[in-house]
Write a structure and sequence with these properties.
It is built from 14 helices and 16 strands. It is of the alpha/beta class. The protein is globular.
Length: about 375
C-alpha cells in the first residue's frame, strides 16, 4: 500500500543561490525556489541551526574552536607539545588527519572532529564545539534536534549518516523507502569540496551538479513507487565566495608585545579572527593592529542580527570579519588559501543559500533557521 505523501528534504552543502541560477539547476523538477539568508559562520554553525531552528547564540556553535582554557579537554595532549617536532611534519594534512582520528577516539567524541592547523601547544587554551553527533537523539544536549522531535512524535523517518559518501547516502535513502519510511533528511557534503577547489571552473561545477541531478532523479522516481505524492525539497546552508586575496593576521598579532593566553586569546578562522581580551593592553593594541586589514569588527547590532550575540562573549570579545573573498592565511584552519571559501557577510552575493522544491514554499522561509519549522510542518507536527 502506498503512502499518501512522502517528504524528502535533501541537504546539499554549499549549493548557493548564485550557483543554482548560473547553472539553472533542477529548474524543471523543482520550479519553486527562494534565495535564503545564510547563518553567519561556517557549517559548524549552519548545521546545528538547520537541525534545531536555533541560532548560534542559542545552540552555542559558531567556529569549531573557541578560547576557553577552563573548559579545554586538551590540556594533557597540549602538555606534550614539545614531542610534536618538527612542526613541518606534524602540520602535514595527512598527519593531522590521523592525529585527529586518534584524539577523537581517545576523547570519545562522536561528532565531526578535526584539529586542522590549530597548534598543539594552543590546544590547552581551547574548547571544541562539536563533541557530539548532532544528527542523533540528544545530539544537541539541552536543545531538541530534528531526530528528537521526529522520534517523540513517532514519525517514520530516515536521517542520513553524515559520515557516508553522497552515493552511500542516496543508496541508504532508497533502502529506507523500501523499508516504509515516509520522511527523509538526506545529507550530502561533497559539493562543498568541489567548490572550495573549483568554484571558478564552470564546467567542473556543472559536471558535479549533473551527477547530483542524476542521483536526485533516481531517488525521486523511486519515491514515486511508494507514494501517491512525493514532496521533494533541496536545502543548502550557504554559497561559495571566490578567492580575492589573503592577509596574514596571525603574524601581525604574534609580532606585537601581546602574549597569547596572558594578554589575549584568539581563534583565527578562514574569514574572521575572534579575539578574547585578557588585558587592557590587548584591548587597545589589537584594534590598532587590525586597522590595516580589509574588514571590520562586528558591532553589537550586527552580532544580534546575525544571531551570534552572547552576553557571556563565548564567541569572542571582538570579532573581525574580512571583506568578501579575503582569506586569513595561514589560519588555525589551514596553511594555504582555497579557491573558494564561505563564512563572509551573509549579505554578500555569493553567500546566499537556496531552497528548491516541487511544492509551494511559504513566505516565512527566509533564513537557514527557518528550514527546521518547514520540516516539522511537512512532517505534520505544526
Amino acid at each position: 500500500m502506498k503512502h499518501k505523501t512522502i517528504e524528502i528534504f535533501l541537504f546539499i552543502d554549499a549549493l548557493g543561490w548564485k550557483i543554482i541560477n548560473d547553472h539553472n539547476f533542477m529548474a524543471e523538477l523543482l520550479p519553486n525556489r527562494k534565495k535564503i539568508l545564510m547563518q553567519f559562520g561556517y557549517s559548524s554553525s549552519a548545521i546545528p541551526t538547520i537541525l534545531s531552528g536555533k541560532t548560534p547564540a542559542e545552540h552555542g556553535h559558531l567556529g569549531l574552536f573557541r578560547f576557553a582554557p577552563e573548559e579545554s579537554p586538551f590540556k594533557k595532549i597540549s602538555s606534550w607539545a614539545w614531542l610534536f617536532k618538527p612542526a613541518s611534519f606534524w602540520n602535514r594534512g595527512r598527519v593531522r588527519h590521523h592525529l585527529s582520528r586518534l584524539l577523537k577516539k581517545l576523547y570519545g567524541f562522536t561528532g565531526y572532529f578535526q584539529l586542522y592547523r590549530m597548534p598543539i601547544w594552543k590546544l590547552k587554551f581551547v574548547d571544541y564545539c562539536e563533541k557530539q553527533d548532532l544528527f542523533v537523539a540528544n545530539g544537541m544536549e539541552h536543545i531538541d534536534n530534528l531526530h528528537d522531535v521526529l522520534s517523540k512524535n513517532k514519525v517514520n523517518f530516515h536521517i542520513s549518516n553524515w559520515r557516508l559518501s553522497d552515493e552511500d547516502n542516496f543508496s541508504a535513502a532508497g533502502k529506507a523507502l523500501e523499508a516504509g519510511k515516509n520522511f527523509f533528511f538526506v545529507y550530502t557534503a561533497s559539493f562543498d569540496g568541489t567548490l572550495h577547489d573549483k568554484v571558478k571552473d564552470f564546467a567542473a561545477v556543472q559536471n558535479k551538479l549533473d551527477t547530483l541531478e542524476t542521483h536526485i532523479g533516481e531517488l525521486y522516481r523511486k519515491a514515486q513507487d511508494y507514494a501517491e505524492n512525493v514532496h521533494f525539497t533541496i536545502i543548502s546552508d550557504h554559497g561559495m565566495t571566490p578567492l580575492a586575496g589573503t592577509v596574514d593576521v596571525m603574524q601581525a598579532v604574534e609580532e606585537s608585545p601581546l602574549v597569547f593566553g596572558q594578554d589575549y586569546g584568539a581563534c583565527f578562522d578562514s574569514t574572521m579572527a575572534r579575539f578574547y581580551y585578557l588585558s587592557e593592553k590587548a584591548e587597545s593594541i589589537i584594534p590598532e593592529i587590525m586597522k590595516k586589514f580589509p574588514g571590520h569588527f562586528l558591532s553589537k547590532d550586527e552580532e544580534i542580527e546575525y544571531g551570534i550575540y552572547r552576553s557571556d562573549r563565548a564567541f569572542g570579545d571582538a570579532i573581525f570579519l574580512l571583506d568578501a573573498g579575503i582569506q586569513i592565511v595561514p589560519s588555525d584552519m589551514g596553511a594555504k588559501a582555497l579557491n573558494g571559501m564561505h563564512g563572509f557577510a551573509p549579505e554578500n552575493e555569493h553567500s546566499f543559500a537556496a531552497i528548491l522544491s516541487n511544492t509551494a514554499l511559504p513566505d516565512s522561509v527566509k533564513h537557514v533557521a527557518d528550514y527546521f519549522n518547514l520540516m516539522i510542518e511537512r512532517a505534520g507536527l505544526l
